[in-house]
Structure formats: C-alpha cells, structure tokens
Amino acid sequence: xxxxxxxxxxxxxxxxxxxxxxxxxxxxxxxxxxxxxxxxxxxxxxxxxxxxxxxxxxxxxxxxxxxxxxxxxxxxxxxxxxxxxxxxxxxxxxxxxxxxxxxxxxxxxxxxxxxxxxxxxxxxxxxxxxxxxxxxxxxxxxxxxxxxxxxxxxxxxxxxxxxxxxxxxxxxxxxxxxxxxxxxxxxxxxxxxxxxxxxxxxxxxxxxxxxxxxxxxxxxxxxxxxxxxxxxxxxxxxxxxxxxxxxxxxxxxxxxxxxxxxxxxxxxxxxxxxxxxxxxxxxxxxxxxxxxxxxxxxxxxxxxxxxxxxxxxxxxxxxxxxxxxxxxxxxxxxxxxxxxxxxxxxxxxxxxxxxxxxxxxxxxxxxxxxxxxxxxxxxxxxxxxxx
Length: 387
Description:
Layout: E1 7-12, E2 19-20, E3 34-40, E4 50-57, E5 63-71, E6 75-80, E7 86-91, E8 98-105, E9 110-118, E10 124-129, E11 135-140, E12 145-150, E13 162-165, E14 182-187, E15 193-198, E16 203-210, E17 215-225, E18 232-237, E19 243-248, E20 253-259, E21 266-273, E22 284-290, E23 296-302, E24 306-312, E25 319-326, E26 334-337, E27 343-348, E28 353-359, E29 366-373, E30 381-382, E31 385-386
Parallel strand pairs: 1-30
Antiparallel strand pairs: 1-3, 2-31, 3-4, 4-5, 6-7, 7-8, 8-9, 10-11, 11-12, 12-13, 14-15, 15-16, 16-17, 18-19, 19-20, 20-21, 22-23, 23-24, 24-25, 26-27, 27-28, 28-29
C-alpha cells in the first residue's frame, strides 16, 4: 500500500536583519505579522511540481498564493532549520527516497537546492532537528529506519552519522503492522533522547542521543508501550516536558504518559478516544499538538474529518474532551498552530483545501475564519519567524 503525505510550512516575512526560528509556537507574538507559507505536495499522479509558497495574514487568517517555491519530487515533509536559512524536504519515492537540502530566499519565496542524499530507508515521512540544529533526523516509514544527518555550515547534508532499524514484536494488524514503521522522530527538550513513534510495533522507542557524534543507542527503558493494535503515529510533548501525548492511528485514541526527561522513564496515566461516542464510521487519526499555553490538546480525525479538542490539567497531565470541530474537507492528515498561537490550520488532503480556525483561548473552541482551495493534497505544517 502506497502511503502519501504532504507538508505545509510557515515562514514569517523579515522585518529586520536578525533571523529567529521558532521551534515552539509563541502565543504573544503580534497578530499583525505576515508569514510565508510553503506547501509540500505529492507529485506522483498529480499536476503538482513540488513545494508551493503562500502568504498568511495572522490578523485575518487569509492565505494568498505566491507560486512554486521549489520543484522537487514527492516532498512528503518539509522542515525549516532553526537559523531560518535552510529547508529540508523528505522525498518519498520507495527505494529511491531522498532527503533534499535547500537554501531559502525569503524575499522571493523561493528555495534553491543545495544537495540531495539517499534517505537511508523507504518513504521518509517525518523530519526534525536536534536541539542544537546540528543534526537532522529522518523517520522512514516503509523500512522502519531512522537516520541522522549532520548539517554543514553551508546548509548541505553530510553523510549519515547513524542509521538504526526499529526492532520489536509487530502488532496484530496484519495489513498495517507487518513490520516496523517509523512515523515520527524528535529529540527531547534536553537533547538527551530521541523518541520514535513506530506504528508497526505499537511502541514509542527511546534512543539515547550522543550530540557530539550524532549517534543513537537503545535506552533502558527502551520504549513506551501502547495497546496492541493501537498504531502510534505522532507524539506531542507538553511545554514543561513532563508529559507525552501519543495519537494512535489504528484505534483512534490519545494516550497520556508522565515522562522523566532525565531517564526516559514513563508511566501511562490515561487513554481517551478522539471520537464522539456516537460516531461509528471508519477513522484514522493523524496529527496531534499541544497549544503553547499548555492548556489545550488537538488531534485530527480522518474519516470523522474533525479536530478533537481536549483541555489539559497541567498539574497531572490528564485531559478532558472539549469538543469536535469539522475541518471543512476530507482527510485532515495534518494541522498546525500558526506562530502567533491564535490560529489552527487544518489541511484536508482529499479535498485539496486548507481551513483556517481561530482558537478561543478561554475554551479551546475552533471557529472557522478563512481558508484556501486548489492546494493539491496539503498535509503537514511547521513554522518560522523572521525579525
């Protein structure tokens, strides 16, 4: 089965010479900021050419097209480097999958390719950086591998310093869990561990990360376990680093854990459905994110085609349902909170549109304020602020 993914990235227009990348949303940023939005698309069997640029008005939530930013095959994920100068795309192409490095011209909203290396696995679906910005992590879905690439001063990728294949007992879903499937990878806030959500193994694996060598080794404990057949897809960390929230694609749940960032030890504290009790149709969850205030948790439902909102008890990490909000399209594979913290953008893959919601800081409720159509299968978001 071919798994397709897309990516959508925010980049704020520069107002001074200093560039500051944001790895977590800052909710007190001026809502009048205007951002560049870069949309990665799946180019096979579509008219898409690669990554497209848009402007995003953080006062109104309006998206406006600016054309092609980079022609590149099947960019399934795009990540902006913390220095704001470079972008990296996961080119999902089976055994020919690659990772491409670009330089960014914020004035023209164009990318220039720097180099391209094999992904060290099949179908990369998620990219992230270590906390120093020295290394790029890539999760390769079909092969179940994770690769670490050093980032050179000129933005080019160096040869990988580590490639590991996830190991463990595959889950009971014979169609989706025949082996390991790395779906998400990210370093912990202290840069001591790298977490990997593996849909095939029903585990969030914990690797010790050596930031001087760029290497990965199994931790003890080696993983956070989930229910058999859950299919963990993505993970969100609370702003204080004390809690993990895992969205599981196959059983439409969020599982909350307490987490010790010094040892990697965890304790399950709650499992909750992402769906209303009266919904009985097909559903696959996709994205999960904690609002930068730490008050709200969001998760997307594909099939149910909604964003589930939960309130968070910041003392014990538990969550309570705060409602479900239709995304105005089908298959919201990904969503993101804009850099001001005021908007959530839901990308509807099968209807080629993005719906913009305003976030109510008091209740977590989402109200539809804007949108954009004619975007080929939009799916993932990340963001950057330029000053």
